[in-house]
Design brief:
With about 160 residues, the chain is of the alpha+beta class. The chain has one domain. Strand 1 and strand 2 form a beta hairpin. Helix 1 packs antiparallel against helix 3, helix 1 crosses helix 4 and helix 2 crosses helix 3. It starts with 10 loop residues before the first helix and ends in a 14-residue tail after the last helix.
């Protein structure tokens, strides 16, 4: 089995690409997925299925946890003949998005596919996500208010 070395196949690296795939726009992911061309054979271990998960929050980011509400999540797991297993959890109800993300996760664990998937899929999707994040941060910064206290000269 030709899987990645610890450096490129580390848990942190895998978490990073799985995040990019999960947060990707479905149409953009589909387009990048199709650009890879013919893919190795895989079989579903867990066909894409929709479920619910509880979203938790913290007051002020550091306070006591509380249940914020539920959201839809779609999960999928696929196995390749090389013995690699790809998994994905994506927000929402897109079965196709979950399956494509799981397949790409598996491909990223294979030396023969790693570079192509990183170049054609992950890097462009990460760039789009970062641009979107920066645009939202800039919009939010426009509403920022600076508060200050003036001290009078009388004591």
């Amino acid at each position: 089995m030709d899987t990645h070395t610890p450096e490129t196949g580390s848990q942190a690296a895998r978490s990073a690409w799985m995040r990019v795939l999960a947060l990707a726009d479905g149409a953009a992911l589909d387009q990048a997925y199709q650009a890879l061309g013919p893919l190795p054979a895989f079989r579903p271990l867990r066909a894409p299925e929709v479920g619910m998960t509880m979203v938790r929050g913290r007051a002020g980011g550091t306070g006591e946890q509380f249940n914020l509400g539920e959201m839809s999540v779609t999960r999928c797991a696929v196995a390749f003949e090389q013995g690699v297993v790809g998994t994905a959890y994506v927000q929402g109800r897109s079965l196709r998005h979950a399956e494509q993300a799981a397949v790409l996760d598996g491909l990223l664990q294979m030396d023969d596919w790693y570079e192509a998937v990183q170049t054609i899929v992950v890097a462009p999707l990460a760039r789009v996500h970062e641009e979107r994040r920066a645009r939202r941060a800039a919009e939010a910064a426009q509403t920022r208010v600076e508060f200050f206290t003036m001290v009078r000269g009388e004591n």
